[in-house]
Write a structure and sequence with these properties.
Elements lengths: L1 H57 L3 H6 L23 E9 L2 E8 L5 H4 L4 H7 L6 E5 L9 H12 L3 E5 L13 H19 L4 E6 L1 H15 L6 E5 L15 H6 L3 H4 L13 H7 L4 E6 L7 H14 L5 E6 L16 H10 L2
Parallel strand pairs: 3-4, 3-5, 5-6, 6-7, 7-8
Antiparallel strand pairs: 1-2, 2-4
Helix pairs in contact: 6-7, 7-10, 10-11
């Protein structure tokens, strides 16, 4: 009886020992998992906070992919050679060579009154219509997506309905255009398109409309032309930013540079050191063209105060008769891209064109 009892006690001790071993094994697995998670976290920290900025330092070309998010080709699955798929039924797609090796995809939308006549017409017909005396707009878009973006199509439709021609290019690297974007390259593309339009439009008014990043391209273009003794007939700046007074807030690593104190000292912002300048404020001091600023009070990317500051600079350089600022109430919800939806916009544009 005693032996039997002792035997049972031994069995109980063995079971207890086995449970401890399993618990210890589980603790070791959990500890190893925690160490692995910690290592992963440290590695992610190193990549985000050290390697990415360091890469920008040693590989400046990476900056282009942060400022110009041209690889994000929204909307998806759109055939840019078929503008009619977006209800632009009086629009032709063409490709222009702005410089050797650079092919630009461009849409030309004729005035809505030519809708029926334009059906089935070729590129030569569209080019000839530029000389019909109707104003011609060159629309320079922002830093994301393609000429097929909803708000860009919306602007083209508004202008066409007013009886104007509209040319909407994709800069180099954007959409189906070749090459890689740089500030100098985008300005070259805009200059080329302007000269191409002037060569085909005779004495028609030519107005450049820049939106967001396109406002920087537009003012660069205007100043380049002034250097050649040419003043643009008119300039529209929608959602204009000013790199002198504000940080550009439209690339994916924006948060990094001003969330953590001191990082800007070690790793300059992507547009520092003259890599990306767009000196719009300085350009406005040199421009001698009528200018219309359009800005929504609820613009979530560029505060309305920036537009007001730039307006003051431009008005001081010229006068209040040649420079106008039209703001749109924030309650309308237009934000940065929605001004084309405003029912008063056609009258605003018509009045501006009539003043030229």
């Amino acid at each position: 009886m005693l032996a039997h009892t002792m035997k049972r006690r031994v069995v109980k001790q063995n079971n207890s020992s086995s449970g401890v071993s399993e618990a210890q094994s589980t603790d070791r697995v959990q500890s190893a998992s925690s160490r692995c998670s910690l290592k992963t976290g440290v590695l992610a920290f190193l990549v985000i906070f050290i390697l990415v900025p360091f890469s920008l330092r040693i590989r400046p070309e990476l900056i282009q992919h942060l400022v110009y998010t041209h690889r994000i080709r929204l909307p998806f699955f759109v055939d840019l050679s078929r503008p009619s798929d977006l209800s632009l039924n009086h629009t032709i797609n063409m490709y222009l060579t702005s410089e050797e090796g650079i092919s630009l995809g461009v849409w030309h939308t004729v005035p809505e009154s030519l809708w029926k006549e334009s059906q089935g017409k070729d590129l030569a017909w569209y080019q000839n219509t530029l000389n019909d005396g109707s104003p011609v707009f060159i629309y320079l878009h922002g830093n994301t997506g393609t000429r097929a973006a909803t708000h860009r199509v919306g602007v083209a439709k508004v202008l066409s309905a007013l009886g104007y021609h509209v040319l909407v290019p994709d800069y180099r690297g954007f959409g189906d255009s070749t090459g890689e974007p740089t500030e100098a390259g985008l300005t070259t593309d805009a200059l080329y398109l302007y000269n191409w339009v002037k060569a085909h439009s005779g004495n028609s008014l030519v107005v450049i409309w820049g939106h967001s990043l396109g406002t920087g391209v537009a003012t660069n273009t205007a100043v380049k032309l002034i250097g050649q003794g040419v003043a643009l007939d008119g300039v529209i700046l929608e959602g204009a930013f000013n790199s002198v007074r504000e940080r550009i807030t439209v690339h994916p690593f924006t948060w990094y540079y001003w969330t953590f104190p001191g990082t800007g000292y070690f790793f300059p912002e992507p547009w520092a050191e003259n890599k990306v300048v767009f000196p719009s404020e300085e350009n406005l001091k040199k421009m001698r063209s009528p200018i219309l600023f359009l800005h929504s009070e609820d613009d979530h990317l560029v505060p309305i105060q920036i537009a007001q500051q730039m307006y003051e600079v431009a008005a001081s350089a010229q006068n209040a008769e040649r420079v106008k600022l039209v703001s749109f109430d924030g309650s309308l919800g237009y934000l940065h891209n929605g001004l084309y939806r405003d029912p008063h916009l056609p009258d605003i544009l018509k009045k501006f064109v009539m003043s030229l």
